[in-house]
Specification:
Layout lengths: L2 E3 L15 H6 L2 E10 L3 H19 L2 E2 L12 E8 L5 H9 L2 E5 L16 H5 L16 H13 L2 E3 L5 H8 L6 E2 L16 H9 L3 E4 L3 H4 L5 H19 L4 E3 L18 H12 L1 H20 L3
Parallel strand pairs: 1-2, 2-4, 3-4, 4-5, 5-6, 7-8, 8-9
Length: 305
């Protein structure tokens, strides 16, 4: 079953990678989104990662996607996204679009010029002083973040709220335009601030967006075994479907940004995952989650050439 993956960190991964062209082909991947993750360095750092993406496309034979109509059924398609502090001016945001970015996250785990992240105390979380379930509810988009969201709508860039605070999430949702949480799960199953509440999942659905299922073991379950992860993933799928319906579910693996998942170690395991989805929830829902839902968002926001 051909599928779209809304998020991977292959552009910044070091050492042995989970995402390779061979594994994507083995997994029957239709479209892989490659995130340019910018923690420091701003637009200059983004530009170097965009160069790396272009080299990857050229050297490994990916088919690059700039518009929805670019997606080819007989290729592994590649779309450039960004995450973190990649832009600090509207001119730089336009520069992201010019370099091919078609989906953009406002923040990572630390504040940016555009807004605030899920965790109110990320450093405390890393040091074990803060709980992963504590959510940032007050600080959201900055005035520049609101301006950026409007510019994204004009350009045709999909807003991505994964890593964004609850306040940021609701400010984007209130704009009543399609947006995504590219790699997030259900907080009702695993209570991490990185996961979405049922109300948030419903809001994504109401706006015509999607939630990409994240394969990070910590965001799925406290049981890291293969059996435990399989059970947890199905529980998250069920929770997302119950909260938002069958048009909201997608996949955002987070491969190369997470430790190896014991159940789904890399893209070559995706066929068995979608077979399981089809067995558990039906072929129609599996196909929507695999590709149809995200391709709809791509058409609605990015549009055709």
């Amino acid at each position: 079953m051909k599928y779209c993956d809304l998020h991977c960190d292959a552009l910044t991964a070091s050492g042995k990678k989970q995402v390779t062209k061979v594994r994507l082909e083995a997994g029957d991947c239709l479209l892989q989104c490659f995130a340019a993750f910018v923690e420091e360095g701003g637009f200059s750092r983004f530009s170097s990662l965009a160069d790396k993406f272009e080299d990857l496309v050229k050297n490994e034979g990916y088919h690059r996607v700039l518009y929805a109509s670019d997606v080819k059924d007989d290729a592994v398609n590649a779309l450039l996204s960004c995450e973190g502090g990649a832009w600090e001016s509207i001119e730089e945001l336009r520069g992201l679009y010019a370099r091919g970015v078609r989906m953009a996250g406002f923040v990572w785990n630390t504040p940016t010029a555009a807004g605030y992240p899920n965790f109110p105390d990320y450093q405390g979380l890393c040091a074990g002083r803060a709980s992963p379930s504590v959510r940032e509810e007050k600080r959201g988009l900055t005035p520049f973040g609101h301006e950026s969201a409007e510019q994204m709508a004009q350009l045709g860039i999909i807003p991505d709220v994964s890593h964004g605070s609850d306040a940021l999430f609701w400010e984007i949702a209130q704009k009543k335009r399609p947006f995504v949480a590219s790699h997030s799960n259900a907080a009702s199953v695993q209570n991490w601030a990185r996961n979405l509440t049922n109300a948030q999942i419903a809001a994504v659905a109401d706006c015509g967006g999607v939630v990409g299922l994240n394969f990070c073991a910590d965001f799925l379950s406290d049981d890291g075994s293969a059996a435990g992860q399989r059970t947890a993933i199905l529980a998250h799928v069920r929770a997302i479907l119950n909260a938002g319906g069958e048009d909201v579910l997608a996949v955002g693996s987070d491969f190369d940004g997470i430790p190896e998942n014991a159940y789904l170690p890399d893209p070559s395991f995706m066929p068995s995952f979608f077979e399981t989805l089809a067995d558990e929830f039906g072929v129609r829902i599996a196909e929507k989650a695999a590709r149809d839902n995200f391709l709809r968002v791509l058409r609605d926001v990015v549009g055709d050439k």
